[in-house]
């Protein structure tokens, strides 16, 4: 089994106290390593936001994980063992931050993306996810500003409707891709979308539950 380092992060102390975010990431990494033949030699946990130009300076556990990965890989062709993360946003939500990590010459593996995603594709996934988040945030901001200009106050239910509209728009953009797959199981459709590198709503790989929601929004769900 190849050596690896696990890195787990939550954004705030409340998430850390609940244990749910940490445990879910740990379970995903454990399952991935068992399936792909990695042995976790050390696990690093961090409670810190992933935002800001100085994010790495504020994340000593990530720096320590990378240092230990280099130690594990010393003398090998790879020069560093992989650092394994459950989801890309646990590494960072900032594409520039991830770009900076790529020059550290420590391989990162994101379990939801699979073992064969190279640094270039990891960067692409991060860029696409960031663009989608920024687009949704901007449209929500514009809608809130327009409502305020009309003297209207929006509550959580209104914001929820805006987000639902965004999801409906994303679904409409995928109709041409999904319609030819109608009749296949949700698991099979998710596999096809992943094989074609179609971006999932939150980045990473498509899951059957996401496909079911997508089919429902497009009125393509089985009767």
TrEMBL record:
Tell me yes or no: is DNA-binding among this UniProt entry's keywords: yes
Q: Return one GO MF term.
A: DNA strand exchange activity
Under the heading InterPro entries, the entry gives: Resolv_N, Resolvase-like_N_sf, SSR_resolvase
Keyword annotations from UniProtKB, A to Z: DNA recombination, DNA-binding
Record carries keyword S-adenosyl-L-methionine:
no
PROSITE patterns assigned: RECOMBINASES_3
Resolvase/invertase-type recombinase catalytic domain location:
3-151
Q: What is the lineage of its organism?
A: Bacteria, Pseudomonadati, Pseudomonadota, Alphaproteobacteria, Hyphomicrobiales
The protein, known as: Resolvase
- One matching Pfam family is Resolvase
């Amino acid at each position: 089994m190849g050596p690896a380092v696990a890195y787990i992060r939550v954004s705030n102390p409340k998430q850390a106290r609940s244990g749910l975010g940490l445990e879910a990431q740990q379970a995903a990494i454990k399952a991935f390593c068992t399936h792909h033949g990695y042995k976790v030699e050390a696990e690093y946990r961090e409670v810190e936001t992933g935002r800001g130009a100085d994010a790495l300076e504020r994340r000593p556990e990530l720096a320590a994980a990378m240092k230990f990965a280099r130690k594990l890989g010393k003398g090998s062709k790879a020069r560093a063992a992989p650092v394994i993360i459950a989801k890309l946003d646990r590494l960072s939500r900032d594409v520039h931050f991830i770009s900076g990590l790529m020059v550290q010459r420590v391989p990162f593996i994101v379990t939801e993306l699979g073992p064969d995603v190279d640094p270039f594709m990891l960067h692409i996934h991060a860029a696409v996810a960031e663009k989608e988040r920024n687009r949704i945030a901007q449209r929500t901001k514009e809608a809130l500003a327009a409502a305020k200009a009309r003297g209207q106050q929006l509550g959580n239910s209104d914001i929820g409707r805006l987000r639902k509209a965004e999801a409906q728009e994303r679904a409409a953009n995928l109709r041409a891709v999904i319609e030819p797959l109608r009749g296949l199981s949700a698991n099979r459709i998710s596999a096809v979308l992943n094989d074609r590198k179609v971006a999932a709503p939150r980045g990473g790989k498509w899951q059957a539950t996401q496909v079911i929601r997508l089919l429902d929004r497009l009125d393509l769900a089985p009767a």
